[in-house]
TrEMBL record:
<keyword id="KW-0479">Metal-binding</keyword>
<feature type="binding site">
    <location>
        <position position="349"/>
    </location>
    <ligand>
        <name>Na(+)</name>
    </ligand>
</feature>
<feature type="binding site">
    <location>
        <position position="24"/>
    </location>
    <ligand>
        <name>Na(+)</name>
    </ligand>
</feature>
<dbReference type="GO" id="GO:0005283">
    <property type="term" value="F:amino acid:sodium symporter activity"/>
</dbReference>
<keyword id="KW-0813">Transport</keyword>
<feature type="transmembrane region" description="Helical">
    <location>
        <begin position="410"/>
        <end position="432"/>
    </location>
</feature>
<feature type="transmembrane region" description="Helical">
    <location>
        <begin position="167"/>
        <end position="185"/>
    </location>
</feature>
<feature type="transmembrane region" description="Helical">
    <location>
        <begin position="239"/>
        <end position="263"/>
    </location>
</feature>
<feature type="binding site">
    <location>
        <position position="28"/>
    </location>
    <ligand>
        <name>Na(+)</name>
    </ligand>
</feature>
<feature type="binding site">
    <location>
        <position position="282"/>
    </location>
    <ligand>
        <name>Na(+)</name>
    </ligand>
</feature>
<keyword id="KW-0915">Sodium</keyword>
<keyword id="KW-0472">Membrane</keyword>
<feature type="transmembrane region" description="Helical">
    <location>
        <begin position="492"/>
        <end position="514"/>
    </location>
</feature>
<feature type="binding site">
    <location>
        <position position="23"/>
    </location>
    <ligand>
        <name>Na(+)</name>
    </ligand>
</feature>
<dbReference type="GO" id="GO:0005886">
    <property type="term" value="C:plasma membrane"/>
</dbReference>
<feature type="transmembrane region" description="Helical">
    <location>
        <begin position="453"/>
        <end position="472"/>
    </location>
</feature>
<feature type="transmembrane region" description="Helical">
    <location>
        <begin position="334"/>
        <end position="359"/>
    </location>
</feature>
Length: 569
């Protein structure tokens, strides 16, 4: 069922840019500043520490596994540790995320279309949807709201809670269709089309962010916002470690399988270490976005006459704070168009990476069957996009913002911590020695002592401690001051289990199909079968010299047949 040949990136820079595009997304300008605001400057300290000891080593590990096995996350991780089929869970969480993440792109398109107006609709309070509390100038009223805040709530048309579903927002529904069409056009030709798109989508956002920073630091009150960002509130330090680790996993994409899938299209002898500046670029982008948005926070606090810490900031801040900033810039319509086009670029990169995980994994597993049904890979990709679109429809109803927040909380924070834990255990403790050998076989050099120490000791211990504390300190999902009712929290846990459940189910299935006693089953299930079997074998067709014949890896997520296992051992 394997594909006859695996395509590769036309140039290595295309993978690097695609990796940056995948890692650097809306989370850098949306989730990171939001978490910083909730945690004060204390968030930066654990965030940077997690980058060094978790982010960089684990990205290195994922890229190595993907490049060596030349398979998507399901096959790659089942090959490394058949007992813990984390790859299936990674595919599940990527698919769940892509269904609601595209809503953020939908909002960007909505704002983009509304930017072709003079004046901008969020520039003043002289609109039919504005309330008496709306202000576009400095005031001392703590009950005031800015024009950009009110435009955001007007777009959502939100209900008072998740109990009221409201009606379908037809403008957002139609734009959601457009967003999925754009995603499809980016990926329908595989890495050959993706590689060309990323030249623009990965680089253009930096031009806009730097221009906005130059403008924002000149606004009144900007210094107060920047001080809030960089000066730690040490009393909050104890409660932000879980969020810092979750942000590293979410932003870089560790545990989602996106970069692992992309690295499977690398040439076999690519130097993986050269691509690790993906994680450095990602974090520097987050910090750059932090300076941009917190200088705008300072300006908002100046307008409303209240401290930065008392601003009404919700998860939609990227659509509230940034528009407020460039509404006062010269040629504000131009800046609005460029900014929301930038958000579109950021969102598209991350979104098509998540969709690519599903496509790559299913094509690896069921290539012949899927081609028989859909005739062409392009039609199969269209079907995947169509299903994801249907699951995203609840997010464009009036209750959509609550559905979005519920899914984001239980997927991007709860599920990813469990997935990261099992992935680290699967690779670091059952495969770490072979991982070093794989790297030496591909590049001629073993990883240095820092990476090996992180893989073997630091990361497994750290992720275990973080997982325990995340369970102890767990807080139910909320949107602003609104706390979701128990039945909604129950739905949230079902969403979380939709990805996590595949790990224990996969373990039970593996132990069930293996021969022998329970002890022998366990020994077989933690032994990386396929990579041992490929050692010393080389492709005779389609591969370069020195390239392992990965084609003999089992095409099933279960293990090879019992006879071949008995023969091997």
């Amino acid at each position: 069922d394997q594909q006859p040949s695996r395509p590769t990136w036309s140039r290595q820079i295309e993978f690097t840019l695609a990796g940056i595009g995948c890692a650097v997304g809306l989370g850098n300008v949306w989730r990171f500043p939001y978490l910083c605001y909730r945690s004060g400057g204390a968030f930066l300290v654990p965030y940077l520490l997690m980058l060094v000891v978790l982010g960089i080593p684990l990205l290195y590990m994922e890229l190595t596994v993907g490049q060596y096995t030349r398979r998507g996350p399901v096959h790659a991780l089942a090959t490394v540790c058949p007992l813990l089929k984390v790859g299936i869970a990674s595919v599940a969480i990527s698919f769940i995320m892509c269904t609601y993440y595209n809503i953020v792109i939908t909002w960007a398109l909505y704002y983009l279309f509304n930017s072709f107006q003079a004046p901008l609709p969020w520039q003043s309070c002289n609109n039919t949807w504005n309330t008496p509390n709306c202000t576009d100038h400095a005031t001392n009223s703590s009950y005031s709201s800015t024009a950009s805040q009110e435009f955001f709530h007007k777009m959502l048309g939100q209900t008072s809670g998740v109990e009221e579903t409201g009606i379908l927002r037809w403008e957002l529904f139609l734009i959601l269709i457009l967003a999925w069409i754009l995603i499809y056009l980016c990926i329908f030709k595989g890495v050959k089309s993706t590689g060309k798109v990323v030249y623009f989508t990965a680089l253009f956002p930096y031009v806009i962010l730097i221009a906005l920073l130059i403008n924002n630091v000149q606004l009144p009150g900007a210094s107060d916002g920047i001080s809030f960002f960089i000066v730690p509130e040490w009393d909050k330090l104890r409660s932000v470690w879980v969020n810092a680790a979750a942000q590293i996993f979410n932003s870089i994409g560790i545990g989602f399988g996106s970069l692992l899938a992309m690295s499977s299209y690398n040439s076999f002898n690519n130097n993986v270490l050269d691509t690790l500046f993906i994680s450095i670029t990602n974090s520097l982008t987050s910090i750059l976005a932090g300076f941009v948005i917190f200088s705008a926070f300072g300006y908002m606090s100046y307008l409303q006459g209240i401290p930065v810490s008392q601003l009404a900031v919700d998860p939609g801040l990227v659509y509230v704070v940034y528009p407020q900033a460039f509404a006062n810039m010269p040629v504000s319509q131009l800046w609005a168009v460029l900014f929301f086009f930038m958000l579109l670029c950021l969102g598209l990169d991350s979104e098509f990476a998540m969709v690519e995980v599903m496509v790559t994994s299913l094509m690896d597993e069921f290539y012949q069957q899927l081609i028989r049904i859909f005739k062409r890979k392009e039609l199969f990709i269209l079907a995947v996009c169509g299903v994801a679109f249907l699951f995203g429809i609840p997010c464009v109803m009036q209750v959509g913002i609550y559905v979005f927040q519920l899914m984001d909380h239980y997927t991007a924070i709860v599920s990813i911590m469990f997935l990261a834990f099992f992935e680290i255990i699967a690779i670091c403790w059952s495969y770490v020695k072979r991982l070093s050998s794989n790297m030496e076989e591909m590049t001629g050099q073993k990883p240095n002592i820092f990476f090996r120490l992180c893989w073997l000791v630091v990361d497994p211990v750290l992720i275990t401690v973080i997982l325990i504390f995340s369970i102890i300190q767990f807080r139910p999902a909320r949107y602003g001051d609104y706390v979701f009712p128990p039945w909604a929290q129950g739905i949230g846990w079902v969403i979380a289990l939709a990805s996590i459940i595949w790990i224990p189910l996969g373990a039970i299935h593996t132990l069930w199909v293996l021969p022998g006693s329970l002890t022998k089953k366990l020994k077989l299930s933690i032994t990386p079968y396929a990579l041992n079997a490929t050692k010393g074998l080389y492709k005779e067709r389609g591969g370069g010299a020195g390239e392992p014949d990965i084609s003999i890896i089992s095409s099933s997520t279960s293990l090879p047949d019992k006879k071949s296992i008995e023969t091997y051992f």
